[in-house]
Structure formats: structure tokens, C-alpha cells
Amino acid sequence: MIFRSIQDKFKVKSSLKYLEDELVKSKVPTNREKGIKAVACVVDMDNFPNAEMLNELRNDFSLAPNAIQIIGYKRGEDKNTPFSIQFFTDKDMGWNGSIENSHVAEFISREYDLLLNYYNEDRLMLKLLSVKVHARLRVGFVGVDAKINDLMFHTDLKDFKMFKSELRKYLKVFKEIE
Question: Which end of the chain, N or C, is less packed with Cβ atoms under 10 Å?
């Protein structure tokens, strides 16, 4: 038990070091064209349990049925509540910033046009996943390290309607959508 807690502390320390190194590196641009065709969503399901609402973006931006990939994060495991969204927990933390979860591995293996970091608390696991995703444009909320996102909104996490309208407005300004 004592060994496990010491091991967990070293995993956190090595993950923090990995995150610092990744945030200092300049972002490698993706080869994707302008326009939104593939969207990744990293969601803090402890603060926004209705992650399925993000699928509404499919209709709003006229996306293909499989264009939105959502992965959730929960601090602890919850085996009693059925979730339609795949998620990872703190127990999935590995060494040197790795996240040992098959759903996460599949999620980060793809390239996206837009990454929605749908969380507003500074959580190590969420930030680790966010820096691993290959996306051309990163959108998030104020309250998270500004180096992770290209565009940050100062709206309430639970006000999804406002978030959608602001996102639409800025994507039009960036000429990503019409």
C-alpha cells in the first residue's frame, strides 16, 4: 500500500515534467485543410455530466455522423452508472505522461480539425490528454493553462447554448465554417 502511494506520486511528478516539456514545445501544425470535418471533445464528466450534448454540434456544423469523437474524464471510477461516452480516470495515469487506457489510445491516434477542451478546472489528466491530441484548432475555457488552447471562452461550463453560439461566431471569423 505504501509502495503504491509512492509510485503514484512519482507518476504524477513524471507526468508534470512531461506536460511542462510539451507546453514549451512549439505546436506542430497539422496538414489538414481549413474547414471543420473532424471534432475531438475532451470532457470533464464530473462537472459536465451531459457530455452527449456535444453531439448537437454535428447538426449545427453539418458534420458527418461519425465526425465527433468524445472522451470523458472522471476522477474516480463509477461502475454503477452507465455512460454512453467512453471515459478514463486517474487510475489510468502511467509513467512520463502516458495514459494507459485503450479508449484514449484510439482517441489520440486520429487527427482532428477542432479539439474542444470542455473543462474549466486545471486537472493534470485532462491537460495530458489535451496536449497529446493532434488538432489544428484548440478551443477551451478560461481557468485552464492558456498554452493548451488557441481560443478560450469565458462562459459557464453548464451554459452549452452560449458556448455553441460563441463557438459558431468565432469559427466564422476564422473562416472555418460558413
Answer: N
